[in-house]
């Protein structure tokens, strides 16, 4: 398995993020970009929670872009949506700093692309501990919007420190390499 360096991931992510920002006519302002990739099973059931997440995240300077099928897209603010296809999926992964993960999400693919997972505490995600500099993502224990939001806020606060964020990505890649 070929791993990119953290610096090359960081540099290519900046370029991808600018390209996505221009294409979607958004202003990311260098803030954390969180991807939410819904599959057909979660599209309808997550609409309300995702709308709340988008609004809450926006109020504290976090960008959220949702990848979803066209049949559910009318439930969210249109400027935050990419319609699901493989090209858009790859584009969002390459541009995102973090991603909300579900049971169907390929966490290894995210990590290989320098994307930090945010999800329920489960196999594959180890909660980041800034004091010990361990972990590969941000976990929450309760399956509700407020627990999720708290994990997203923790990610935002860590993202404000580029050295810590890069170290988090490095830890994630190193863990994959040794497993």
Unreliable residue stretches: 43-47
The number of E-state strands comes to 6
Label the structural class.
alpha/beta
SSE sequence, one letter per element: HEHEEHEHEEHH
User: How many individual domains?
Assistant: 1
CATH topology: Rossmann fold
Helical proportion? 40-55%
Given this structure, which CATH class is correct? Alpha Beta
CATH architectural label: 3-Layer(aba) Sandwich
- Strands of the largest sheet, in order across it? 3-2-1-4-5-6
CATH superfamily: Glycogen Phosphorylase B
Q: Into which percentage range does the β-strand content fall?
A: 5-15%
> Mean pLDDT score, rounded?
87
Radius of gyration of CA atoms, rounded to a whole number: 15 Å
Alpha plus pi helix count: 6
- Cα(first) to Cα(last) distance is 11 Å
Please tell me what the overall shape is. globular
Name the features.
179 residues; alpha/beta; Rossmann fold; six-stranded parallel β-sheet; 6 strands; 14% strand; globular
Characterise the protein shown here:
- It is a single chain.
- With 179 residues, the chain is of the alpha/beta class.
- It has a single domain, classed as Glycogen Phosphorylase B (Rossmann fold).
- The protein has six helices and six strands; from the N terminus they run αβαββαβαββαα.
- Strands 3-2-1-4-5-6 form a six-stranded parallel β-sheet, sandwiched between helices.
- The chain is globular.
- The chain starts with 5 loop residues before the first helix and ends with a helix.
- The relative contact order is 0.16.
- Mean pLDDT is 87; it is low at 43-47.
